[in-house]
């Protein structure tokens, strides 16, 4: 079986984890934590970076930092992972969903202004597949209406907007190091603070609402409970694992980009012939090769492709279920006077192909040939699949 994902180990993870264990400091905020945080600050121009146990935790820290309260509204894309919305919903915010773009699953920036009300507190653009949202438009709206921008950069390490690293543009940002990401620590995340207003408080929230970090730096004689917060920082063992990955970031990225480019070029003629949409990258965005996806014409067509690839021992998977149609959100009985046609389309039609560092050229070619061999169902004008009468593949 060719899996959808396979975590990559550089070979140094166990060595650094061993060093962390025998350093006598394994509870967090030790040498490796600080090395990882400085790496992000120096490489991406982030003012302050804090490792967290997950991207979800980083987003929850954002909600605390911007003081989300019941009744506040936060704009997020519907086509995203639940954490993007959950972090703010937990603080009592009403989540206001934006539809996706026609050319890309990211939020449709031109629809955002109509979603803003006097209760809007923040906009959370998600850089889906590591492809940037139009941050000039988002930041201009935030400035006009005095809003906070939290970049969900879970998939966006090494990606950029007009040459600027993603995660360094919004007031705050969150990264993920889940095992499906470009660089990993099993579970893990990072909070990026780009606005001076949030720097001092971020470390207090990170350390359970105390000034413990200041105490260990010798800046205060004792530490105490001074704010809200939680245990957001990961163990030093997790940071040591991550450091081995960051040391090899450029090699990892080069391999992932080669795989992405091979998919894109070798599937282009077949995709065009069958009206299957390949990823489109706006001129302002870079590509960090986080994922390679295809967008089919219908839910049924995609499901048949998944099943036939599975029969050939290839695991390809769908992605998010639109949050506006989730059981939890519907239970809130919010009045929604809008539809989300593009988000619904990506829910039904988007398929992700295997992409990981150790995917061999032979296995990738096998995936490509398998896709081309599948007899796709043509779609009728009413959106229902027709009966196949001929091989529609190039």
UniProtKB/TrEMBL annotation:
InterPro entries the record matches: DegT/StrS_aminotransferase (IPR000653), PyrdxlP-dep_Trfase (IPR015424), PyrdxlP-dep_Trfase_major (IPR015421), PyrdxlP-dep_Trfase_small (IPR015422), WecE-like (IPR012749)
Modified residues (N6-(pyridoxal phosphate)lysine): 181
Gene Ontology BP terms: polysaccharide biosynthetic process
GO MF, any single term: dTDP-4-amino-4,6-dideoxygalactose transaminase activity
Entry annotation: catalytic residues: 181
SUPFAM superfamilies according to UniProt: PLP-dependent transferases
Keywords: Pyridoxal phosphate
Keyword Lipid biosynthesis: no
Domain of life according to the entry: Bacteria
Gene3D superfamilies linked to this entry: Aspartate Aminotransferase, domain 1 (3.90.1150.10), Type I PLP-dependent aspartate aminotransferase-like (Major domain) (3.40.640.10)
The protein, known as: dTDP-4-amino-4,6-dideoxygalactose transaminase
Gene source species: Fodinibius salipaludis
